[in-house]
Amino acid sequence: MPTIVIKLGEERATGYIAEMHKLDPDLKIREWPDVGDPNDVDIAMVWKMPHGELAKFPNLKLIMSMAAGVDHVLGDPDMPRGVPLVRVTDPHMARSMSHWAAMNILRLHRETAYYEDLRSRREWAPERAFDTDSVRVGILGLGYLGTHVAKMLQAMGLKVQGWARSPKSIEGIRSFQGTDGLHEMVASTNYLLCLLPSTPETVGIMNADLFARMPKGSHVLNCGRGAQLVEPDLTAALDSGQIAGAALDVFREEPLPQDHPFWTDKRIIMTPHHAAEVYPPAVAATFLDNIRRCREGLPLNGLVDLSVGY
Ligand code: NAP
Ligand code: GLV
């Protein structure tokens, strides 16, 4: 039986199918909602598909998230949990995420909003020093992306530490675990960057209690998932000065509702879930490799452990 792939859900970036066909012109790929006979389909590629859709394909052998995160798949109560689920781990994405982190930590640290404001008033200012030596970045999540980001920030001369479920040995980067470890890390973190997967354990992790444990005037950056930040707690911490500024790429509700207060809050840098893209020319080969591995019964790349949810 030939492999038939279904591409389900929202478009992330155009060009996946063309890139996959460059590598395997004979691969049969259908695009939702034109699914044909669902019995034929054995592989699904998905990004934010409506719940219940995956369950309509009774012969699936592999589900490929077109993203690093899999919360968009696991949030579907009808997702067929017996089918292996793989996710994207891609160096292009890791570089892109590292650029987002570096760009926004520097925008906050070097106070670009202040300089833009000065410029708008045609005002020159005396030279000043930026105390980079006493600044420390704390990364929530030292996985595939968090580790790349940590190493790039370290190479830029920043002190970096990180938190994960398991201990890590990354040269020059202290790692913390557990709730006590989290509290210890944030007490010496000036830039807290979230790169955690969205799971029941991580939802709401960036909240008033955590902010209160950070040095006054710290900064918060979220490029994990919107549900990990308690948004009103961030606004309150910005109002009190406990948090001096933030950079957010992900939000509880996306697209961000028109009446959301973050749109007009100048203390928050925002990007519309664009921190790290899945770049079709780079990932097409990894999708095809996993399809081949599935056909040949070989170990899959980026296999998700459903028991932990990432
Ligand atoms: P990953 O390799 O699975 O890494 C996840 C990290 O989080 C691991 O270090 C893991 O610890 C840690 N972790 C998970 N649950 C934890 C918990 N309860 N307590 C402490 N640490 C925990 O994932 P990744 O590829 O780095 O991606 C991370 C997330 O980034 C994705 O899930 C997605 O939500 C987000 N993302 C966002 C964008 C964007 O454009 N905004 C793009 C790509 C990805 P262990 O290492 O000990 O397992
Ligand atoms: C994007 O958010 C991803 O998980 O790849």
Question: How would you explain this protein's 3D organization?
Answer:
The chain is an alpha/beta fold. It folds into two domains: 3-90 and 278-296, NAD(P)-binding Rossmann-like Domain (Rossmann fold, 3-Layer(aba) Sandwich), CATH 3.40.50.720; 92-270, NAD(P)-binding Rossmann-like Domain (Rossmann fold), CATH 3.40.50. Helices cover 30% and strands 17% of the residues. It contains nine helices and twelve strands. The chain has a seven-stranded parallel β-sheet. Helix 1 packs across helix 9. The longest helix is centred in the first third of the chain and has 19 residues, at 91-109. The model has no long low-confidence stretch (mean pLDDT 96).
